[in-house]
């Protein structure tokens, strides 16, 4: 069932329920009020009749003038003696005249039905010096009140039906306005599904409700994110295939050379084997880095823990020192410095930076670890070849290398800093490059000590 139908049905049923309760209340209340006022009229009449002294005299009970002035079309007034005889009577209503004559020595009053008409009655004993001489009886038909109540019921029904109709149209109109943007969203989603092209939902000029705006914004944000991811992936595939092509071309052309002249010419054979070995290694490095980057693109790549940065940097520095036979000096003021993050990824990030420092410099390398205002700062400084200022902005692009000529000597693939940037982003950190050509390079990292949002970007 659609939201609109559900909402309309719910409103209608709820309204009907309220109206029924309300109408019942009004009906009962009005009946009670009118009956009470009729009873009051009867009581007043009885009091007036009793004011006459003749009514306390056995001989005058049948006087014609005693009841005449109280005559009313919808009433019957009579006096009945203890032996059950009617001695005085006023009234012309046949229904009331047909009521049985019965003497009762007590005061009684109440309500009964004659046919379908309500009748109020009151019976009062009459005394002459403490001796019961008769009974005054008044019967009053409530046919006028009943007809008023019928009008009331009709009016209540008409207004209730009118209210329900208005409510049906109102809710239908309102819910169609309310659900129009949702339907628009569904349509857009279907279109995306059909065409495979991501599209955002436009926010109209009409004032939408806050929740719907939130929904549309969340949807658009999701689309934007997907769009960015797709674009990144496309770019990655394009860059990767381009980068893979060069070493493959080199390998296949050297293999061709080997095939043709390799058996006879030793020089060519050695050159070809050398080149093929070098390019294969490059291919290996390239695919390794590419896989790592592809992995880094995943949103839930991090596994968080709290660890000591100083200890990690120390261990890493001595390991690289041994492997590359280069001096790496670690400076820190704090004995230990804890931060939350993915230890392996931070380590990988430092390996990337130190690998560059080792590759692009010859002097000793300095690593400084410090803590500034709830954040951890790491500087990696080398006194190497440095980077031109206009190149710095491109360093984090994939496959970007400052000078094509360096490729030959250092053999990098240009993915290190892209991976580094991704790791920094996932840790909500910051990475900056300060460099002067010929003087050296400092890369600074800054991370919050505790991670708030781990959802990645
Ligand atoms: N410390 C540094 N000194 C001088 N140049 C640097 C330094 N670090 C990076 N660069 C320059 O930035 C470029 C990009 O670095 P990046 O680490 O991304 O790639 P790479 O080192 O060439 O290859 P790899 O993917 O193997 O690390 C490098 O090619 C280099 O020209
Ligand atoms: Mg590198």
Q: How would you portray this structure in words?
A:
With 457 residues, this protein is an alpha+beta fold. The protein folds into three domains: 3-148, Beta-Lactamase (2-Layer Sandwich); 198-297, Helix Hairpins (Orthogonal Bundle); 305-448, Histidine kinase-like ATPase, C-terminal domain (Heat Shock Protein 90, 2-Layer Sandwich), CATH 3.30.565. Helix content is 54%, strand content 19%. It has helices at 3-51, 65-68, 94-97, 143-195, 210-261, 266-296, 309-324, 343-359, 389-392, 404-410, 416-426, and strands at 75-80, 86-90, 108-114, 117-128, 131-141, 305-308, 328-332, 338-341, 365-372, 375-382, 430-436, 440-448. The strands form three sheets. It has a five-stranded antiparallel beta sheet. A hairpin with a 5-residue loop joins strand 1 and strand 2 (86-90). The chain is rod-shaped. The structure holds adenosine-5'-triphosphate and magnesium ion. Residues 352, 355-356, 412, 416 line the site of magnesium ion (MG). The site of magnesium ion (MG) has 5 residues, from helix 8. The chain crosses the membrane at residues 12-30, 151-174. It is a multi-pass membrane protein.
Rounded to an integer in angstroms, the radius of gyration calculated over CA atoms is: 51 Å
Written as H for each helix and E for each strand, in order along the chain, the element string is HHEEHEEEHHHEHEEHEEHHHEE
CATH architecture of the largest domain: 2-Layer Sandwich
CATH fold-type name of the largest domain: Beta-Lactamase
Q: Low-confidence segments, ≥5 residues, pLDDT <50? A: none
Number of strand segments? 12
Domains (count):
3
Structural class: alpha+beta
Largest sheet: 5 strands, antiparallel
Q: If strands are numbered along the chain, what order do they take across the biggest sheet?
A: 2-1-5-4-3
The overall pLDDT, averaged over residues, is 88
What is the strand content? 15-25%
Helix content: 40-55%
So what's the CATH class of the largest domain?
Alpha Beta
- Unique bound compounds: adenosine-5'-triphosphate, magnesium ion
Q: Looking at the structure, what is the overall shape?
A: rod-shaped
**Could you tell me how far the N terminus lies from the C terminus, measured between alpha carbons in angstroms?**
38 Å
Number of helices: 11
